[in-house]
Amino acid sequence: MHQVDITDAQTQINQLLQSALQGEEVIITRNNQPILKLVQILPVTKRRQRGSAKGQIWMAPDFNAPLEGQGDYTAERQQRLENISLDDIFAEIEHHRDAQ
Fold first, then answer.
1. What is the rounded CA–CA span in Å between residue 24 and residue 11?
2. Are 36 and 20 in contact (CB under 8 A)?
3. Residue 61: inside a domain, yes or no?
4. Is 54 within the bounds of a domain?
């Protein structure tokens, strides 16, 4: 923040404007009381509008289908999960905790 008396500001207006354009806040005072503030006005960002991409994005009908070669893996994983008990899970957690 840059603070300048109004009488000095009249002779330094170009420098003060440049400071404000570079993002600095310039306060102009009279009798040590702030009367004006020079700040750069940033451009207003346009808000996205809901539905503006409608029809431009699509998903393939087989989006959720298993990838090639993944079908067997998924079935194997499901079978392993069905055969595992909570005791096995806790034992594995303890094993990893002890290894650290």
1. 18
2. no
3. no
4. no
- CA 46, CA 81: separation in Å to the nearest integer? 49
Render each residue's pLDDT in the chain as its tens digit; 100 residues: 889 999 999 999 999 999 999 999 999 999 999 999 999 998 888 888 898 888 898 888 888 877 777 666 667 777 777 888 888 888 888 888 887 7
The CATH number assigned to the domain holding 30 equals 3.40.1620.10
Pairing mode, strands 2-5 and 26-30: parallel
Cα angle 56, 61, 67; round to 5: 115
d(CA 6, CA 32) in angstroms, rounded, equals: 10
